[in-house]
Specification:
Elements lengths: L1 H31 L7 H11 L33 H10 L13 H11 L3
Helix pairs in contact: 2-4, 3-4
The structure holds heme C.
Length: 120
Amino acid sequence: MRTRTATSILFIALLGVSAAAVRAASADAEQQKAPAPADVSRGKAVFENSCDECHDAYSRDARVGPGLQGLKAGKLPDGRPATHDKLLEIVNHGPAEMPAFENRLTAQEKEDVVAFLMTL
Ligand code: HEC
């Protein structure tokens, strides 16, 4: 009886160890899949760090640049279409006096901030 209990405990412990190994292996596989899908809440944080000083996200009132509220309706404040690619180009190159973020944000941060812009 006692041996049986000990065997069961050993068996259960082994199951636990192999489940942990499987989880670790799939976490590894996940990290190799780059880039991660755009994430709106991370994009909001990028916006607060890099864009908010010049753009109000929640109105069309101008700061240094135009307020960006309303982008999800598909139009930039100047009336051009607000597509993913157009927004990414603006972030990278910055029209007129807007600074270029091409080398100041990672590819992931740019995708995240564009995803956030498209919710405004
Ligand atoms: C130092 C101020 C400044 C910062 C920081 C800044 N911008 Fe701008 N942005 C501007 C100005 C000024 C314009 C208007 C340029 C023009 O006259 O066409 C502009 C234009 C834009 C436009 C286009 C509006 C339109 O109607 O064409 C978008 C979208 C935009 N910015 C997004 C961003 C995002 C996203 C960030 C952060 C990654 C950012 N900006 C950071 C100043 C800034």
